[in-house]
UniProtKB/TrEMBL annotation:
Keywords for the protein's UniProt record, in alphabetical order: Amino-acid biosynthesis, Hydrolase, Magnesium, Metal-binding, Serine biosynthesis
Source species: Actinomadura luteofluorescens
NCBIfam families cross-referenced by the UniProt entry: HAD-SF-IB, serB
Protein name: phosphoserine phosphatase
Active site per the UniProt annotation: D184, D186
CDD domains: ACT_PSP_1, HAD_PSP
Pfam families linked: ACT_6 (PF13740), ACT_PSP_2 (PF21086), HAD (PF12710)
Length: 400
């Protein structure tokens, strides 16, 4: 055997976390002819687990290193585990993915099911990190050696069974580079449907709601259904639009999501089968960069029961996404689309990442991933941003 063959020493420290543990260990190790091959550290509820993989050549006095590391552990009142081995170069694993799990609550059975499916596909979990504890629990797993499409299908089935949300995305720089968010408005960015709020004022809510529901499920042509519903509003005083605008409520977490991602230079767009008379106010309030929606025709202070211009339908939403990306100078692969109805399907499928938000079954099945909790800001977790990072940025802004 070659006398200079490289060997390894794995040191694992476990115990109460406090400042200076990592620096104390590395100061001690710096006295020896070692190189650092890998480091991993995690803190859970104040308890630290620190793993350090060191490389050394055969013939080195590793007994002295061992004794020194044990003295550090004793001084810090921590547990230590040491093991030696050979520094084998691990083959590069293909199919690197991020698997994000959202649960409210997230139970052990769900994690067991997810981990079991990953294992069954011959993949390996390389790293696990918690991104959020509230308003939902979010765990992200770095996975390698998996077929993305096969694993996504398996985890989607497991998510339904376990009543959690699971997203599977390719790893790499492109995940961090998504720079345009395109959102549906009704029942996504805001709570409820604007046309139904207008129908309340016109006294035709039941008729409009039935058509809206069928259109959302994809049972009716959107443009025809929109014109049919708008026709029922003919004669309604335009002041009803102001009343509806005053009643609008953003989805829980919407403002946090927009504020957080705009800090990271994301561009935001809204595209709606609803009406500019409402979306224009959202653009101003939230600082939205691009928008597209239909426009209600108004004459002599009354709604005519018609819309002007070309209707923003399913194809129109996808075209708007592509137009916004061009204007922003952003590749389609770096866009995220969020929606809930059949009218959003083309847009979700065109985007780099399509997210079905509290969506109809047909939309959940077609999208890249689904979020079924009533907090829009959970979307940031799918982009690898933790709750702690969001709260730290908010705190920094409040001090400014």
């Amino acid at each position: 055997m070659d006398g200079s063959a490289e060997r390894t020493l794995l040191i694992t420290l476990t115990g109460r976390d406090r400042p200076g543990v990592t620096s104390r260990l590395f100061r001690t190790l710096s006295q020896f002819p070692l190189t650092v091959a890998d480091v991993e550290q995690v803190v859970i509820r104040g308890r630290l687990v620190l793993g350090v993989l060191l490389a050394y050549t055969e013939g080195a006095d590793i007994g002295r290193v061992w004794n020194a590391a044990e003295r550090v552990a004793n001084d810090l009142d921590m547990e230590i585990e040491l093991s030696t081995g050979r520094n084998k170069r691990m083959p590069k694993r293909s199919g690197r993915l991020h698997v994000t799990v959202l649960g409210n609550p997230l139970k052990p059975a769900a994690m067991a099911g997810i981990a079991g499916r990953i294992s069954a596909h011959g993949a390996n979990i390389d790293r696990i990190e918690r991104l959020a504890q509230n308003p939902v629990t979010c765990i992200e797993l770095d996975v390698s050696g998996a077929d993305p499409d096969g694993l996504r299908a398996a985890l989607t089935a497991e998510a339904v069974e376990q009543r959690v949300d699971v997203a599977v995305q390719h790893s790499g720089l492109h995940r961090r580079a998504k720079r345009l968010i395109v959102m549906d408005v009704d029942s996504t960015l805001i709570q409820g449907e604007v046309i139904e709020l207008l129908a309340e004022h016109a006294g035709c809510l039941d008729e409009v709601a039935k058509v809206t529901e069928a259109a959302m499920r994809g049972e009716l042509d959107f443009e025809g259904s929109l014109r049919e519903r708008v026709a029922l509003l003919a004669g309604l005083d335009a002041s009803a639009i102001d009343a509806v605008r005053d009643r609008l409520r953003l989805a829980a977490g919407a403002r946090t999501m927009v504020r957080t991602l705009k800090r990271l230079d994301y561009k935001f767009a809204i595209v709606s089968g609803g009406f500019t008379q409402v979306t224009d106010a959202l653009v101003e309030d939230l600082g939205i960069d691009y928008s597209a929606a239909n426009t209600l025709e108004i004459q002599n202070g009354k709604l005519t029961g018609r819309v002007t211009g070309r209707v923003i339908d399913r194809a129109g939403k996808a075209a708007a996404l592509e137009r916004f990306a061009r204007e922003a100078g952003i590749p389609i692969s770096q866009t995220v689309a969020i929606g809930d109805g059949a009218n959003d399907l083309d847009m979700l499928q065109a985007a780099g990442l399509g997210i079905a938000y509290n969506a109809k079954p047909v939309v959940r099945q077609a999208a890249d991933t689904a979020v079924n909790v009533p907090y829009l800001d959970t979307i940031v977790f799918l982009l690898g941003i933790s709750r702690e990072e969001v709260e730290a940025a908010d705190a920094e802004d409040s001090r400014a």
